[in-house]
Design brief:
single chain; 77 residues; mainly alpha
Length: 77
């Protein structure tokens, strides 16, 4: 049973590390659990025929752009 839990945690960590991190960012920003934020996105996507996915992708793009701008490198160093 412990092997199954470890495997489940490894798979979850793998996908969370490679996801956009939008739910994690929003959860930390609003002091909510990531799980709760993900559930809200899923339920809203079903109820509103996918329109929260557009918001999700916009926030993902914004977070990626924000992290890209933070990694400024100076050419002359």
């Amino acid at each position: 049973m412990k092997i199954v839990e470890q495997l489940t945690n490894d798979i979850k960590d793998f996908f969370e590390a490679r996801a956009y991190g939008v739910c994690t960012y929003l959860g930390e920003k609003f002091d909510l659990s990531t799980h709760r934020v993900r559930n809200v996105f899923i339920y809203l996507s079903f109820l509103s025929f996918g329109s929260p996915l557009v918001i999700y992708l916009i926030v993902a793009f914004w977070l990626d752009l924000k992290s890209y701008l933070k990694r400024k490198s100076i050419i002359w160093d």
